[in-house]
């Protein structure tokens, strides 16, 4: 491809609308253009990247027995009503009516569609397992689409659905997909982690998220530098911290003026935060007030708390509510003297129960208890793991101190079990002639999101740095002076030889200053730049610059192709 | 791929809903399943065919300087309002609102989108020509979707748009696309014709339709067996037929009881239909009554008549209207004595004006004129080519008798000129610094329709007969008895060797009776069937049956791969 013909309109300025680096760089480098909020055109360079990602995904799906098909984007409402998700999805679903006033949606996902399809044609265990997938546009009417392709309203997904005759089969399908995903993101040249995830609203349980590691990631991840443990911080389990035994001192109340925070009371009493008990008051959807207790230096993990309480939602209680139910004041809450009832209940983190002679609020303004000893001085309704993991907490698997990082979710694997097959009567007859619901899994890759995540992980102040396997082109040949016939002729020769050797190359034949061409090469992010200037001609050396490192090599004209191939294999 | 794992659920019965053969066979052979009226899932076999067609299309587009991109399916209403098509498209357009109540449509086509895209980034003649294309779902809310994939509401199209600086550039783009389309349908293994087409509602002028020849085609085509002339019958031009000179006899009125039709009056008077004048009465949108005259053995081409009258619509006039305006009766209409006015006007086909001593209705019940001579006895308001071409009419180019056939439109190339670039202000600065609108063309291939058309052209009573280049697999290996170890082992060997030699092969390893497997092989339409039975084992000969001809060959085990490759190259 010649740059003079390539439709990659680069911009000198960063558009004001773009908040994140991938969005900024894709606009500037001529990869995407906005059509409406969260809706983009993929220009030729982006489309090449997407097709490379798609091909990697496709090969790995096929390698695991996946069969590609293509289901409708517009889906009739009826099947969504059968599973109850027509109402659950709310405003996030794009809905429309046809000319006969029938309801349709633009598929945000395809569980209903594929389960309906398979139930019509699969009757026997002999037809299982089935692993069916597609790569296509998905739709989600985000209330605030932003971050370019990171949170769009129209985006490209690969979604595979597995149908097995039992849970052992599902486990096998799940493991195959887990393995395929590991290969996919490795082959894309990305640094990523598979994270134990909360399975969330889509249903089922047993799930991993595949996260591309990037500082701008919206998800906090904890991982163990020693064992394989990796988890979303919202999900990460924790073992109780065991404190050394101490003699139990008598419970005492004391004045602590102006000490509404843990920091303040620690300072006032001269005790470490780890020796205080933090009490947070939540109100559940059942109108019960919850006193959630964690150690003063810990944080409550609200998702864990929600799950442990088996509630639909919890919210921090307002001062009004707290005062009405307990007569106490925010800032001085504590468990001592609280009786568990339908109105109020104490939930304590495991680590709290191992504390000795601790400090906690006295449910009176400006006063705390000291020498509080759990069990002796208060009785929780529930003791559970309700705290948020932190950097340097012990790994729940091996005890080594964990580390934290941030990631962008690019894939997720789910065990759905029989949630959809039961709702939609997708059954089969097993070996013994018994009718059973199929056991399902679903497995998604955000294809367009992976492109954006690759940039969030691989860029510098000059532009994108594409990993070789998903680069739109692998190299660009830049004649310093396009009007110099000898330079152009050598550049043409190199351009043609590289393409002839399966190195996808662009020739920047534009009549622009070298600085403009170099800037565009860096911005677009070709892994290699081959510069053809006067020196190259006089000395017979081909100058090759590696985009990622900035390193420049000179290869002899006789065997530069072999040298470049070798160089690329190491990138 | 093993048939035991392949998701291709075949049906023994033809579903009642399927009216045309491609629809019936794709349902029966497990290629598609209906999700809603005109909305289908493409199962793995269909998806393989579609991807092969797509790849052929892609290669030919790229060969002509096409650059692939991918535009949104959901398009904001504003750009459609700028061109006025938001209202023009009517109920055929799927429309929806997002959560913020903004209007969108599901793209039926992308002129507005691509023109808006290009106008934002192209400023100079140096950036032209541009040829940008995509392959994606398109949407049309047909009032009565039918014929399976032939007239769906969600379907796959390739659409390329060309942007040139002048009409000479457009001509070049158009010619390149015409050539690409010829290559595409040839490479798909289809018999087709490029037809001069009426450009219709999409706008512009200068257009060819690419028609796959099939008896079930909805379009009537006329072509010359001698020269290259091919046209849609609606568009085919005709030269006037010249009759030999005759002496003009005196106009005479005569009783012709019970002769409301040309056939009846011909018989009654004993003259050939070619010596009678047929008069049809139309009413225009301007409420003018038109007496359209063609020779008695000809038919009026209403589209030509409409275009010649420059009307928006014409309808056959009701008896009431005719009687009210002319006092005459249907069945006995004629031009003699009719004065052209705002209320009524005569339009005659060229050939009518060359007739001598003809017969026509006398505008009185049960009476005709004989010895009618145009010009002497009546004066048309307009003489024009308004008749429908028939088989054996002289070719308008070379005069040889034309033939007719039927076709399915699978592609269309259009010159749009500046219709959209003017409406959307997509301008550029030319070599002289002058701002001009870009000159555009658009070029579509119905990808999913091509698959259906291929079946309409290639099938027999047993099923589909795929052309090799777009067959989902090229061969199937059928062990007669899957429980026979020696047979299965030979079948496995052949299966693996064929795939190893790039012959895409299915192994029918199902534990089914041979009859079932042969029936499925014919139904699915693999070009070659390799049968492995006891005879193959004992005699060392591989049996290969050609699906299209039913011809069976036996190849020696030592070199059967070469023989099969050779056989396939001739299919």
TrEMBL record, chains A, B:
<dbReference type="Pfam" id="PF04073">
    <property type="entry name" value="tRNA_edit"/>
</dbReference>
<dbReference type="Pfam" id="PF03129">
    <property type="entry name" value="HGTP_anticodon"/>
</dbReference>
<keyword id="KW-0963">Cytoplasm</keyword>
<dbReference type="InterPro" id="IPR007214">
    <property type="entry name" value="YbaK/aa-tRNA-synth-assoc-dom"/>
</dbReference>
<dbReference type="InterPro" id="IPR036754">
    <property type="entry name" value="YbaK/aa-tRNA-synt-asso_dom_sf"/>
</dbReference>
<keyword id="KW-0436">Ligase</keyword>
<comment type="subunit">
    <text>Homodimer.</text>
</comment>
<keyword id="KW-0648">Protein biosynthesis</keyword>
<comment type="similarity">
    <text>Belongs to the class-II aminoacyl-tRNA synthetase family. ProS type 1 subfamily.</text>
</comment>
<dbReference type="GO" id="GO:0140096">
    <property type="term" value="F:catalytic activity, acting on a protein"/>
</dbReference>
<dbReference type="InterPro" id="IPR006195">
    <property type="entry name" value="aa-tRNA-synth_II"/>
</dbReference>
<protein>
    <recommendedName>
        <fullName>Proline--tRNA ligase</fullName>
        <ecNumber>6.1.1.15</ecNumber>
    </recommendedName>
</protein>
<keyword id="KW-0547">Nucleotide-binding</keyword>
<dbReference type="GO" id="GO:0004827">
    <property type="term" value="F:proline-tRNA ligase activity"/>
</dbReference>
<dbReference type="InterPro" id="IPR002316">
    <property type="entry name" value="Pro-tRNA-ligase_IIa"/>
</dbReference>
<dbReference type="InterPro" id="IPR033730">
    <property type="entry name" value="ProRS_core_prok"/>
</dbReference>
<keyword id="KW-0030">Aminoacyl-tRNA synthetase</keyword>
<dbReference type="InterPro" id="IPR002314">
    <property type="entry name" value="aa-tRNA-synt_IIb"/>
</dbReference>
<keyword id="KW-0067">ATP-binding</keyword>
<dbReference type="GO" id="GO:0002161">
    <property type="term" value="F:aminoacyl-tRNA deacylase activity"/>
</dbReference>
<dbReference type="InterPro" id="IPR044140">
    <property type="entry name" value="ProRS_anticodon_short"/>
</dbReference>
<dbReference type="GO" id="GO:0006433">
    <property type="term" value="P:prolyl-tRNA aminoacylation"/>
</dbReference>
<dbReference type="InterPro" id="IPR023717">
    <property type="entry name" value="Pro-tRNA-Synthase_IIa_type1"/>
</dbReference>
<dbReference type="Pfam" id="PF00587">
    <property type="entry name" value="tRNA-synt_2b"/>
</dbReference>
<comment type="function">
    <text>Catalyzes the attachment of proline to tRNA(Pro) in a two-step reaction: proline is first activated by ATP to form Pro-AMP and then transferred to the acceptor end of tRNA(Pro). As ProRS can inadvertently accommodate and process non-cognate amino acids such as alanine and cysteine, to avoid such errors it has two additional distinct editing activities against alanine. One activity is designated as 'pretransfer' editing and involves the tRNA(Pro)-independent hydrolysis of activated Ala-AMP.</text>
</comment>
<dbReference type="GO" id="GO:0005829">
    <property type="term" value="C:cytosol"/>
</dbReference>
<feature type="domain" description="Aminoacyl-transfer RNA synthetases class-II family profile">
    <location>
        <begin position="38"/>
        <end position="467"/>
    </location>
</feature>
<dbReference type="InterPro" id="IPR050062">
    <property type="entry name" value="Pro-tRNA_synthetase"/>
</dbReference>
<dbReference type="GO" id="GO:0005524">
    <property type="term" value="F:ATP binding"/>
</dbReference>
<dbReference type="InterPro" id="IPR004500">
    <property type="entry name" value="Pro-tRNA-synth_IIa_bac-type"/>
</dbReference>
<dbReference type="InterPro" id="IPR045864">
    <property type="entry name" value="aa-tRNA-synth_II/BPL/LPL"/>
</dbReference>
<dbReference type="InterPro" id="IPR004154">
    <property type="entry name" value="Anticodon-bd"/>
</dbReference>
<dbReference type="InterPro" id="IPR036621">
    <property type="entry name" value="Anticodon-bd_dom_sf"/>
</dbReference>
<dbReference type="GO" id="GO:0016740">
    <property type="term" value="F:transferase activity"/>
</dbReference>
């Amino acid at each position: 491809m010649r740059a003079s013909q390539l439709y990659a309109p680069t911009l000198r300025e960063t558009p004001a609308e773009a908040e994140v680096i991938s969005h900024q760089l894709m606009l500037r480098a001529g990869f995407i253009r906005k059509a409406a909020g969260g809706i983009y055109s993929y220009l030729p360079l982006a489309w090449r990247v997407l097709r490379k990602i798609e091909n990697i995904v496709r090969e790995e799906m096929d390698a695991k027995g996946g069969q590609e098909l293509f289901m409708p984007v517009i889906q009739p409402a009826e099947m969504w009503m059968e599973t109850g998700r027509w109402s659950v999805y709310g405003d996030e679903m794009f809905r429309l009516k046809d000319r006969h006033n029938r309801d349709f949606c633009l598929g945000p996902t395809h569980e209903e569609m594929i389960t309906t399809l398979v139930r019509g044609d699969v009757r026997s265990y002999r037809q299982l397992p089935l692993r069916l997938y597609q790569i296509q546009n998905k739709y989600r009417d985000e209330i605030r689409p932003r971050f370019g392709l990171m949170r769009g309203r129209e985006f490209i997904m690969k979604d595979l659905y597995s149908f097995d005759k039992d849970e052992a089969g599902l486990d096998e399908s799940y493991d195959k997909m887990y393995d395929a995903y590991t290969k996919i993101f490795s082959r894309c040249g990305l640094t990523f982690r598979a994270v134990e995830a909360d399975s969330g609203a889509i249903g089922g349980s047993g799930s991993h998220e595949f996260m591309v590691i990037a500082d701008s990631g919206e998800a906090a991840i904890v991982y163990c530098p020693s064992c394989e443990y990796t988890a979303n911080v919202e999900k990460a389990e924790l073992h109780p911290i065991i404190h050394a035994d101490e003699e139990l001192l008598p419970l005492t109340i004391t004045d602590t003026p102006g000490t509404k925070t843990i920091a303040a009371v620690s300072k006032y009493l001269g005790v470490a935060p780890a020796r205080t008990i933090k009490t947070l008051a939540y109100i559940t959807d059942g109108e019960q007030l919850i006193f959630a207790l964690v150690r003063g230096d810990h944080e409550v993990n609200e998702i864990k708390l929600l799950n442990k309480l088996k509630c639909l939602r919890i919210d921090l209680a307002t001062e009004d509510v707290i005062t009405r139910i307990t007569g106490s004041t925010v800032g001085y809450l504590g468990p001592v003297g609280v009786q568990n009832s339908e109105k109020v209940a104490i939930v304590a983190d495991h680590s709290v129960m191992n504390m000795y002679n601790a400090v906690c609020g006295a449910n009176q303004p400006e006063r705390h208890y000291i020498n509080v000893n759990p069990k002796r001085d208060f009785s929780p309704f529930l003791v559970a793991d309700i705290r948020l993991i932190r950097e340097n907490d012990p790994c729940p698997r091996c005890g080594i101190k964990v580390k934290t990082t941030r990631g962008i979710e690019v894939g997720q694997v789910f065990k759905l079990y029989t949630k959809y097959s039961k709702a939609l009567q997708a059954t089969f007859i097993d070996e013994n002639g018994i009718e059973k619901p199929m056991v399902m899994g679903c497995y998604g890759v955000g294809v367009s999101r992976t492109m954006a995540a690759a940039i969030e992980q691989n860029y510098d102040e000059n532009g994108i740095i594409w990993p070789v396997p998903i680069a739109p082109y692998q190299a660009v040949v830049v004649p310093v002076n396009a009007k110099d016939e000898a330079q152009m002729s050598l550049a043409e020769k190199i351009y043609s030889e590289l393409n002839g050797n399966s190195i996808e190359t662009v020739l920047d034949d534009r009549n622009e200053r070298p600085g403009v061409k170099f800037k565009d090469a860096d911005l677009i992010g070709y892994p290699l730049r081959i510069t053809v200037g006067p020196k190259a001609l006089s000395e017979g050396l081909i100058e090759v610059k590696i985009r990622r490192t900035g390193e420049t090599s000179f290869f002899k004209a006789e065997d530069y192709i072999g040298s470049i191939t070798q160089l690329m294999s190491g990138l």
